[in-house]
Design goal:
- This protein is of the alpha+beta class and 262 residues long.
- It is 15% helix and 44% strand.
- It has four helices and 18 strands.
- A hairpin with a 2-residue loop joins strand 13 and strand 14.
- The longest helix has 12 residues.
Amino acid sequence: MTEATRRAPGTPCWVSLMVHDLDATRQFYAALFGWEFAPGPQQLGPYVRGLLDGEVVAGIGRLPVDRHLPVAWTPYLATDDADATAEAIRSACGTVGVGPLVAGNEGRMVIASDPVGAVFGVWQAAAHTGTAVRGTHGTPVWNELVARDTTVSKFYQVVFGHEAQASVPSGVGDPVEEDRLTLLVGGRPVASVHGVGQGLPRDRGPHWMTYFEVEDPDGAARQVVELGGRVIRQPGSGPAGREATVADPEGAVFTVVRTERD
């Protein structure tokens, strides 16, 4: 297990999920990832943080009963100035839906969407710097923006200063040309953009996908079904390792992956 520290601006630093049944969702992720839970900031309603060995991993909140919003994992990108980033989002044809909002002494947040409609968060850290551990079962390991094509990467380059680099083929099977870019901060890969053309799910549209590290993707996919979720893409080889795309009982889609390690 590796401890994480304050991230450079533009780096994914946190993932959060808003659901209708908070208790049932806690039970699902506790069983799947081994998370325990502690209270978090309540500015947007009941909210808890998932923990591994006492260290924060991710957040789960409860939607107001009258809000019928899509249930989805949302990555937060680090910033040193939430107000300036919110203005940059608007200037680059994105939309700010929430904030900038003060979350107690934890930090300041923004919820926004890019020009193609993919929702993401922005986090200006104070006491809470984001996910505190990585590299072990149940921790976020990667975030990928799924869209029709990768031209939306220009938005993130303008707003967050990302560099964009064509992804190197994985070398698995026959060579396939893919519309995929890696976003970098200071020369280090932090996220990716995958253009899937007509393969974009109609029920979700452009969206950010969170990848969680697991020891056994095949076993995790089976467990998701046992816990009331479903498998969207069966376990197989992906760019980072063996992976499966699944959905929890409320329909939040994520990918479980065992990354290839040296």
